[in-house]
Amino acid sequence: MDDNQEIFKVFQGTQFWWTSGRVSYQAVTTSQKVSSVQRRYYKLTFHRCHRDLIINSYINHVMKQGQAVMVRNQQRKLFTNGSTESWYGGKWTKCVHFEHPAHFDTLAMDPKRKQEIIDGLLKFKNGKE
């Protein structure tokens, strides 16, 4: 969402709005320097009579969806063991993001057989025999 953008939502028949914004303020760092800090926020607006539904159900729904997105977007990482210390006391260091180039589309396979597998997986996913 952009700053000051408003989005209208409906959850279990209840209408509400999300508004985004940004607040700027001055902060003092450890070295006594003053720096400008910006924080983003999201404001949820709804009618007072729907407070219990929003607090008890909708907020939990939003949190679960947010956690699912974080898991889905999480990058895989590979670590190597540092060689500066002994083999039994070394630290895991040198993290790199794992992005394997191979996937089902690049698999060397007969195209007809590959399509049969895809069709079978789709039938399984859709619950058909």
Characterise the protein shown here.
This protein is an alpha+beta fold and 129 residues long. It has a domain at 1-74. It is 29% helix and 35% strand. It has two helices and five strands, in the order βββαββα. The strands form two sheets. It has a three-stranded antiparallel sheet with strand order 1-2-3.
Give the N-to-C terminal Cα separation: 42 Å
Unreliable runs: none
Overall form:
flat
Care to count the β-strands?
A: 5
User: Main beta sheet: strand number and arrangement?
Assistant: 3 strands, antiparallel
The spatial strand order of the largest sheet comes to 1-2-3
Mean pLDDT: 81
Fraction in helix: 25-40%
The helix/strand order is EEEHEEH
Helical segment tally?
2
Provide the structure class.
alpha+beta
Summed up, what is this model?
This protein has 129 residues and is an alpha+beta fold. Helix content is 29%, strand content 35%.
Helices and strands, with pairings:
Elements: E1 6-11, E2 14-28, E3 34-46, H1 51-73, E4 77-81, E5 92-97, H2 111-125
Antiparallel strand pairs: 1-2, 2-3, 4-5
Descriptive labels:
129 residues, alpha+beta, 3-stranded antiparallel β-sheet, two-stranded antiparallel sheet, 5 strands, flat, Mitochondrial_chaperone_BCS1
